[in-house]
Amino acid sequence: MSPDLIVALLAAAVQGAAPILFATLGEILSEKAGVLNLGVEGVMAISAFAAFFVCLQTGSATLGLLAGGLAGSLMCGLHSLVCQVFLGNQVVSGLALTIFGVGLSNYLGTPYVGAGTVGFRQASVPLLAQIPWLGPILFQQDAMVYLGYLAPVAVWFLLNRTSLGLGLRATGEMPAAAAAAGLNPQRLRAFGVMAGGFLCGLGGAYLSLAYTHMWTIGLSGGRGWVAVALVIFAFWRPFRAVVGALLFGGVMAFQLRLQAEGTNIPSSLLLMLPYLLTILALVFSAARAHRAGRNAAAAPAALGVNIEPEG
Amino acid sequence: MAGRESRTDIGAADVLPEVRLVGVTKRFGAVLANDSISLSIMPGRIMALLGENGAGKSTLMAMLAGCFKPDSGHIEVEGRRVDFASPREAIAAGIGMVYQHFMLVENMTVAENVLLGQEGGFLLDPAAMHAAVTELSERFALPIDPGARVGDLSMGERQRVEILKLLHRQSRVLIFDEPTAVLTPVEAEALFAALRAMSAQGKAIVFISHKLEEVLALADEIAILRRGRIEGEFLAADVQSPADLARRMVGRDVVLEIGREPMETGEVVLDVRHLGGPGLDDVSLSLRRGEILAMVGVAGNGQQQLVETVCGLSRPRTGEVELLGRSWDDFFHCRDWQGALAWVPEDRTGLATCGSLDLTDNLLLTTRQGFSKGMWLRRARAREVAREIVRTHNVQPGRIDLPAWQLSGGNLQKFVLGRELLRRPRLLVAEQPTQGLDISATEAVWRRLLTARADMGVLLVTGDLTEALQLADRVAVMFRGRIMGQFPTGDAARVERIGALMAGLSE
To answer: Does B103 touch chain A (CB under 8 A)?
Structure first.
């Protein structure tokens, strides 16, 4: 492989990683607050459409991005309502959210299939883009990728260096302790779920605004599920999520390149590669957690458990 | 507030109560949990709230802590009427509560737990948080490592974290819900010292308990709660003896001194010789029909491993275990349900019963023989027997269709004991059989065990020395997997030395 090809592949990997990273970080926020959200796939699908539609109507990619995030928050607000107010099962509600989201986005999007939109274009960072190797890989991307560089830091900071994050983690571990400390676990959970939904929404928006620049059916392509798996791979840590997203983005870029080069390997097998990797990553992290004892895995203790009302 | 000084003289008229409950009433459905309760909590005093299980102690304190509101009546803090809508408001008013089940996040550090909800700003500064907790722990002599993960701490240390949480919130009233239930005797002593120190600094302390000795040792004032009403309020100095206090508490005479007549011993039912393995070190003991052998010691000194081996959960590594004259392998290879081994585990709701199953199903859990016909269960017969157990053992509320979790600890334990005795075992292993039980339930369980030993040998594992000395014919003291001493409970001189043996000093 020529150096140029490697640089192109790595740059594509970074681009492929961005939507997964947003979604993974969003799911980490939600799960740290104690709510398992299996609806990421549906949330991303809806957000991708909302972002595409608003961008198409207003011509503003930024407004589109915002719409994607808000749509994600709204969708997850629904999940929060079902689980926190009506005490619905989090797994069932999440699955329903996925079916609903994917279905609705396909329905709403049918008239627009094939339509293009402005979205985000490549915007090189001055100076940094000139660095050999690193420049083309990291700094000749679109604005949303740069946002993606900040996101893990922001999520880490929120969780570990703010009182809000401390309360959020306490709620995910032991809501009763948070309540006894005078916090409002229900509100903290709702915040975690909806803030996480906003991030998932950004991931969805990335697909239509920066990845394809057009609307097609099935745009989310299982990325939401990958994000859910990567949360476990990342042991609920924002920075490890970056590693997972890059791995996934890398394999995605690699198989696309292989397809473009025209190999003898059937394309359906190649398309399988990223998901195969996801399974391997999960097996690897489960084995590692098993070896390191319970603490290393560190799933929030109250994950998936609804807060029952008193009395 | 003017006029409030850190005086501890209750007789002085100028000391205002820190908190006053005025005619507080709370009802849950048909149950009147608290019936127009009035109580004054004074600064610099330790008040014990004494009552049997279900007397309404926890409900009363939960209202003080802002968990829910009284149906009628009100609470006054420093003479002003308050109306707590949430625990946060109670905390802000200076009332803090240490729950029986700690409200701590195991996966966070000590400092994070102490400062949760009190960070004093949006941004966190870990170094400053550590410093604040260190300072606090030094000021009140409650040593703790602020960076340690709470999940790695002992129960005594976790309780210290809970206390630090309250102290950090500048709580002036500290409420403890059965604080010694999870502590070792040494940790309990340390807690008492800390409580006295806090009270000396002007804090008002309330502790809920049903352990008479500890109430008498610690409290300045005692309030007795019975069936939701205050049945007495007096100074601890006015109480003559634990028996006197017990009488005031249950409203009738309870024989705390339970008469134990020696019994003729029969054949050996359990013979352990040089048992070793993880947590066990050369344990030898034998138990005959007609006697109770109490294993005492601080929890975690090998008692659990011994019980698991005797009950067949783990195979003896080295040494021999003989049950009813058969080797361990032989005995557990083809075990009889009838007339063999029964186990009353410590974990009443996790191991002994299934919370969501009713009493009939819980009976069938360990006792299927006689209730099956081929592959079919004879449920009608099982119901009959369950009803019989409920009647003979006075299990309240006397219904067998209730799920086990709805029974109070004492009633559930009576049911479990009845179920296990049903099979007429010849060897009974009872682990902490009266932990968390009120006096009348304790008495019932004790009496059952004493009469049961006519037909069996009882291995009693307990952390309660009183229980051991009241019930057992012989006592064995465990420390770090070894038996430090084994002697009849009538041997006063050696009984005196049990504390030293529990601490590892050999005879």
So the answer is: yes
Distance from CA of A202 to the nearest CA of B (A): 25
Percent with pLDDT over 70 in chain B = 91
- The verdict on a CB contact (< 8 Å) between B116 and A298 is no
CB-based burial, B330-353: b 16+ in 10 Å, e otherwise: ebbeeeeeeebbbbbbbebeeebb
Q: In this complex, do B103 and A176 lie within 8 Å of one another by their Cβ atoms? A: yes
Please, what is the average pLDDT of chain A?
90
Residue B254 is predicted with a pLDDT of 46
Please answer yes or no on whether B108 and A311 come within 8 Å at the CB atom.
Answer: no
Q: Are B258 and B447 in contact (CB under 8 A)?
A: yes
Do A174 and B106 lie within an 8 Å CB cutoff?
yes
**What is the chain B residue with the closest CA to A160?**
B124
B387, pLDDT greater than 60: yes
CA distance A283 to B190: 47
- Give the model's pLDDT for residue B6: 38
Contact B122 A162 (CB under 8 A): yes
Q: Given B28, B117, B121, which is nearest A181 (Cβ)?
A: B117
pLDDT of A26-44, one tens digit each? 999 999 999 999 999 999 9
Nearest CA in chain A to B89: A182
Q: Determine contact: B124 vs chain A, CB below 8 A.
A: yes
Close Cβ partners of B484 (under 8 Å, ≥ 6 residues apart): B477, B478, B501, B502, B504, B505, B506, B507
Tell me which amino acid residue A261 is.
Answer: E
Q: Taking CB atoms and an 8 Å limit, are A169 and B113 in contact across chains?
A: no
**Whole-complex ipTM:** 0.86
Residue B504, pLDDT above cutoff 50: yes
d(CA B242, CA A259): 85
For each of the domains in chain B, give its residue range(s) and CATH number, in order of start: 19-250 (3.40.50.300), 261-340+423-507 (3.40.50.300), 358-420 (no CATH)
| Closest CA relative to residue A101, chosen from A57, A45, A49 | A45
Chain B: nearest CA to A161, how far in angstroms? 5
Q: B424 pairs with which residues across the strands? A: none
Structural domains of chain A ordered from first start: 3-122+132-297 (1.10.3470)
Q: pLDDT per residue over B282-309, tens digit each?
A: 999 999 999 999 998 766 788 889 999 9
B140 touches A at CB < 8 Å = no
Can you read off the two tokens belonging to residue A187?
């509100």
Phi, psi of B352 (to 5 degrees): -75, -35
Extract the tokens encoding B58.
């926890």
When CB atoms are compared, the residue of A169, A170, A180 closest to B87 is A180
Contacts of B371 (CB under 8 A, 6+ apart): B364, B377, B378, B379, B381, B382, B385
Helix A3-32 crosses helix A223-233 at what angle (to 10 degrees)?
Answer: 80
Query: Residue B363: CB partners within 8 Å, gap ≥ 6?
Result: B382, B385, B386, B389, B419, B422
Lowest mean pLDDT among A33-37, A89-93, A215-219, B432-436: B432-436
Q: Report DSSP state, residue B14.
A: T
> Which of B67, B91, B122 is closest, CB to CB, to A163?
B122
Do B106 and A298 count as a contact with CB atoms less than 8 A apart? no
